[in-house]
Amino acid sequence: MQITTVEVVPVELRLRLPYRTARHSEIDCVTAVFVRIETRQGDTAWGCTALDPLTTAERLEEVTRICRACADRARDLSPLNTEYALGELAQIAVDVPSALCAFDLAFHDLLGLAAKLPLYRLLGGYRNRIQTSVTISIAPVKETVKLSCNRARQGFRIFKIKGGIDPNEDVYRVRAVQEALPHCTLRLDADQGYTVQQALDVARALEGHLEMLEQPTPADDLDALRQVTKHSPVPVLADESVVTPASALEIAAQRAADGLSIKLATCGGLRCARQVDTIARVARMTTMVSCINEPALLSAAGLSFALSSPNVHYGDLDGHLDLIGDPTVPGFLLEEGWLIATDVPGLGCTVDL
Fold this sequence. Notes:
By secondary structure, this protein is of the alpha/beta class. Helices cover 39% and strands 24% of the residues.
């Protein structure tokens, strides 16, 4: 299989609902970069990335420049020698993991097309579906309940409630949602907003009500995260603290969290995600496959990874739901909050660009 064409296409997409977090008052658009690869054998593969203002300071101009440099190098690489090819591209995309992610997805898509297998089977095929949470952005209590009930009517049964500004308000919001939707599962993502004591106060107040507490303390303060994890009655997951396999190894070594959240766009794609998951698995920590606001193509890759590993206990792959004009035509299904793979080879998506 020989690559003949590599095209890099930046796209800006708007959100139907503005997205509010502890660190950003409002996010109403998403910047994505798509990569299209054609081969002499007639295959067309797609990859993409998205820029996350919550996690990185990457700029579109820099990501696009690195993607185009990767495109020049990719024409001389064999897409079936995936590990070697991505190792070569990683040297170009140093400190720009989102650019590497786009090519990582495209090369894995090509691998699935060549094998005539859906990627989740090629990576391990542990299952063919996973239940996903849906994110509820920061809002007053009544609006939080309304947003949650609207999502419940769409079939979702797991809610990740954003918090981190006012710990007491977060407790009220979680309790209000549980009262309105008593049979649903709730998660709280503090987005690094708490002190150790605030995190423990929230965890104790919501013991028995939360499935997990995500990234309660600042990402660069592993000692604070470790203290919360040690004393919290609620499982604690590291999110923004997990960027590279090295950071995952440090968290595991310190037992600073009960589990690790992995986002493909911020860690560099499937190759890196699998390394992080292996670290978590050996350390007997759970894995959550998560997302940013991202095209469905990126969600499809996250789903392929989530379905491939028995260590993935949590799915959080809703980042494509509110995008307007996403050029991705997904091959996976969404039914009553469950993401279900199909047997279309590769990532199973087409892109209309």
